[in-house]
Amino acid sequence: MLSTDPRPPVQLSCTTLPSAQGNLQTLAITLTDPQTLVRPACLPTLSLPTDLNLEQEVILYGRSPTWLYGYLIHRCHAAPWLGCYDARSREIVVIHSRVSTPQVGDTLAIVHAQQPCPAILIGGPPNSGKSVLSNALRLDLTAHRPQSNIFLHRASWDGEGNWAYETNQPKWVERLVQSHE
Question: Among 4, 122, 131, 154, who pairs with 160 as Cys (CB 3.0-4.6 Å)?
């Protein structure tokens, strides 16, 4: 589904994440309409926040396509070191460093001020409706809690996923799923 929203599809803001090493400068990535696909055509108009200081570390934080992370890493490569926040481990993974510490591959724990949000696990055999239920739950939570970041993680891809619900070409999805079952 393509958006007709006049807002830019990606919003970047400068914030901090608390760690044992102190507050770390963080580039927060927000998809303004997470129900639509972000297109690479947004890259030429995407600007780094004016308060982002490339003479300090930069932590990338937020959901986005891999190509957007790659672009932001390129744009921020002048920083002394770069890290990506890994939601699964709740740590920062250092991915680029021009300084003696931290080094590439180091991880830095985040000091969370509050407990993590609730999580829901949906399991079942193939073709039992897990994807349909997960998508319906995601849409309902997003509609009723628009201020919350809803993160849907699939541990075992079964041929269908969010992409099947977010496309504007359902016949194409049907053909792909049938041809690869």
Answer: 131
